[in-house]
Amino acid sequence: MRRVPPVFLCVLVVMWLLLNNTISLGHIVLGFVLSALLLLAAFRLRPLQPTMRRFPVLVRLFFDVLIDIIRSNIGVARVVLGLVGEREVHAGFIHIPIDMRDPHGFAVLAMIITATPGTIWVELTDDRTELTIHVLDLIDEQEWIDRIKGRYERPLMEVFE
Amino acid sequence: MTTFDYPLWASVPASILLVVGGLVTVIGSIGLLRLPSFFMRMHGPSMGNTLGTGCVLIASMILSSALLGRPVMHEILITVFIVTVSPVTAMILMRAAIYRTRVNEERRRRQEQLAQGEGSRASDG
Q: What are the residue boundaries of the structural domains of chain B, listed by start?
C-alpha cells in the first residue's frame, strides 16, 4: 500500500466541514473516517501518484492568480465595451513551449488559464511539449509567453516536480 | 414574509459586491452577444464565471454570516467546483470549434479544386 499524503486527507475533511457548515466534533470524526475510506479507494484506482512540495509557493501563486483574474476581467470588460481607444483588438492563438511534465501541474495550469478571462486553453500536443492558448487581446506574443511561463509554469514546476 | 434587518457593516459591502458582480456578469454576457468570432465570444462568459460569481458568493457569505451570527463559509465550495470544472467545457468547446474550422477549410479547398478541375476540362474541350 502506498503512502497517502496527509494533505489530501486534510483537504477532504475541510471540504466535508464546509459542506456541512459546522465544526462540531462529531462531524470532524465522521469527516476523517469518510475521507480516509475515500482516499484508500481513490489511490487504488489511480496509479499516478501526485507529489506536492513547497506550499508557500502555492499560496503565492493563488494570490497572483487572484490579482490576474481581477485585472484581466477589467481588460476583457474594456474590450467588450469598446474602451480600448482607437487601436483594433486582435485575437489570436499563441504556441507556448512547455517544460513541465507532471499531469497534475497541467491540470492546475488549465484551471488558471481558463479561469483568467481573456485566455483559454486550446490544446496540448501529445508529447506535452507545446501548449496552444487563445488570447482575446493579443498585442505582444512574447509578453504572454513570458507571463505564462514565469508567473504560472515555474511555480507549478516547483510544487509538483 | 419575514424580513430581517441586516446590520450596516454587512448590508453595505454586500450591496456593493452584488452590484459589481451583476455588472461584471452583464458585461460578460454582452461580450458573448457582440464579439465578432466564436473564439472571441468564448472569453465573455468567463468574466461572469470568475469575478461575477466571486462577488455574489462573497456577498452571500457576508449576509448569511450576519443573519446567523456565525461565519458561513460553504459558498467557497461553489467557487472551487466552478474553477475545477470549467476547463473541461472550455477545452471541449475549443476543440470542437477548431475541428469545425478545419473541416470547413478542407471542404472549401476541395470545392475550389473541383471548380478548377471543371474549368480546365471545359477549356480543354
A: 8-124
